[in-house]
Amino acid sequence: MNSEQQYTILFLDDETNILRSVKRLFVGRKHKLVIVDDGQKALDFMQNNPVHVVVSDVKMPNMSGDVFLEKVAESYPNTHRIVLSGFADSDVILRLVNNGKIHRFIQKPWVNDALLSAVEEGIAKFKLKEDNVSLQSQLEVQNKRLQTLNNTLEERVELRTLQVKTSLKQAKQGAHTIKKVLLNTFTSVNFIDITRGKYVSTMSEKLAAVLKLDAKQTSDISFAGLIHEIGMLPLGDKVYSLAYTKMSPSEQELYLNQAKNAKHMLSSANQLSGINESVFNQFEYINGKGFPEKLSGDEIPLGAQIIAVAREYLRYKTGLYDLQQYNSTVALSKIHNYAGIHYSEEVYDALVKVVENEDLLEKQKNDCLSSSDLKPGMVLSEGIYNDKDILIMPESHVIDEACITKLQKIEQETNTKFDIFIR
Fold it and tell me: I need a labelling partner for 422 at 20 to 30 A (CA). Which of 292, 293, 308, 354 fits?
């Protein structure tokens, strides 16, 4: 029932003048008023029509008000019940109140505003009960859907795990072959965006270089970055494509516990133990409050921390965290908030170095011009050399028309293109 629904109020009293007064009081009100002078008639009406509030006298012939209200309480417990009587101290009223058969007592003669307020209060309480029933019904539906989702998710986990394990079993035992089979299985899923894995892989490799890890460690961490989202295969494209802050609490839990899925999938690939550990533990935090096993400090492999910062940097840059695409400075500042909490300061410092170097290369790339882009008055920020490393124009040289013509002539004669950097 929506907020525009017309609610029904039933007044029961055997005195005609009382009913007339009530009728006058409710003229022009938005709710429907039904006046009845007999308890059985009132019950007959309620049997075929919804009534949300009843207001009843107590002393009446045929069926007394207390009997009527007890029947209403038994058959229509959600209907709000008010006594309107001149017998405030009667045992009947006290019994009705104490037994919970009425919600409100108003003594005759009444104050109009008090009576209207009591009726509106009754309607409000009926609405509240009705809303609670609706919410409970919705909750039951959602719980059933969640149960279905959980069952479906478990089936998907088992299916994806079976696919991965079958592929690994069929592969030769060499680590290189297993990597190839694993990557093919991972990328064959249509919703997987392998560019995310490639980016994390490249960043992880650069971080490993800054941290001076050996070739074997660097190779393992690079491949772990490539398949770091393998635990999301059973979750489907919805969770995979959502930004973290736009996920529901249950979806966030699924996302954070993808490591459990990965561990289950890769458990038979013993040759990739170093890779597996980095993937399994990428959501563990050095403060011991991570997922799924709450490891802390040195218990967390360095490779897992490297994967974590590379992954988070990507998510901040591409909008996968909160739909905002942050520049490198803001992304680093956000990750810095968790340095010493989620991952070590050493790993964060390595990320800063990698990003600063990337930004420098990007700036150089953006500043790089061809000879056709040059204009008189531009100043070289670097010297221009030919393919034999002979200086053609020095740093700080001011470009003029003659310079442009000279460079273009050399390019044409040698079939080369100069990378020209200006200030």
Answer: 354
**What ranges make up the beta strands (E) of 43-173?**
53-56, 80-85, 104-107
Domain boundaries, the chain: 8-135, 171-366, 370-421
Q: Phi, psi at residue 138, to the nearest 5°?
A: -60, -40
Q: Give me the residue label for tokens 């300061």.
A: 345
Q: Which CATH superfamily is domain 171-366 in?
A: Hypothetical protein af1432 (1.10.3210.10)
Give the burial string for 340-368 (b: 16+ CB within 10 Å, else e). Answer: eebbbeebbebbbebbeeeeeeeeeeeee
What pLDDT, in 10s, does the model give residues 152-169?
Answer: 555 555 555 555 555 555
Q: How far apart are CA 310 and CA 164, in angstroms?
A: 25
What does the pLDDT average to over 11-15?
Answer: 94
Show Cβ contacts of residue 290 under 8 Å, excluding neighbours closer than 6 positions.
Answer: 283, 284, 300, 342
Residue 297: HSE in the Cβ half-sphere, 13 Å Cα cutoff: 1
Topology of domain 8-135, CATH: Rossmann fold (3.40.50)
**Do 232 and 311 form a contact (C-beta atoms < 8 A)?**
no
174 token code pair: 């060499």
Half-sphere exposure (CA, 13 Å, Cβ side) for 118? Answer: 21
Q: CB atoms < 10 A from the CB of 139, how many?
A: 10
Enter the tokens of residue 270. Answer: 């013993």
User: Tokens 């008090």 appear where?
Assistant: 114
Rounded CA separation 420/402 (Å): 16
Please indicate, yes or no, whether the overall pTM of this predicted structure exceeds 0.70.
no
Q: Are 66 and 85 in contact (CB under 8 A)?
A: no
Q: pLDDT at position 411, please?
A: 87
